[in-house]
Amino acid sequence: MIQRIQSIYLLISVILIGLLFALPFAEIAKDGTIFLFNFQGILLDGAVQQSGIAISILIVILLALHVYALISFKKRLLQISVIKYSIVVLLGMLGTFAFYTAYSYNGAQISYKISMVFPLIVIVLDYLAIRGIRSDEALIRSIDRIR
């Protein structure tokens, strides 16, 4: 399972998605007040100002999809479709990030953290995993043709 490069890509994706629970996404400064934006939502001194339940649900869904794709290495076509669905969910997560930061606080100074780039990195890794899975599938089909 782990000896294939696409499994490595998926494992790195699982780790990056898991890190979204631990790292903040951004700091929002408005009127001298600094809000912290993480998976719980937008916080001010530890108190939730805007709930981030949508982001938490998206992270859990992404984690489940990637773990399922990682363990279903024998079903390559199913693995490809699960990864495609996860890319769609990742794009939805990026839209949710944009909503929480830019549209929620107009005129605020936003300081993005490194974890905001994780969904983009995961999309690239998912694309590379799909390419690896397709090449494995093509190799197996060509071997079946020879027999």
Describe the structure.
With 147 residues, the protein is an alpha+beta fold. It has one domain (5-146): Butyryl-CoA Dehydrogenase, subunit A, domain 3 (Up-down Bundle). The chain is 62% helix and 16% strand. The protein has 4 helices and 5 strands. It has a 5-stranded antiparallel beta sheet. A hairpin with a 2-residue loop joins β3 and β4. α1 (5-19) packs antiparallel against α2 and α1 packs antiparallel against α4 (118-146).
- What's the story with the biggest beta sheet? 5 strands, antiparallel
Indicate the CATH topology.
Butyryl-CoA Dehydrogenase, subunit A, domain 3
Name the structural class. Answer: alpha+beta
Whole-number tally of structural domains = 1
In round numbers, the mean pLDDT is: 86
Low-confidence stretches: none
Enumerate how many helices there are, as a single number: 4
What is the end-to-end distance?
25 Å
DSSP E strands, number = 5
Cα-atom radius of gyration: 18 Å
Question: In the CATH classification, which architecture applies?
Answer: Up-down Bundle
Fraction of residues in β-strands? 15-25%
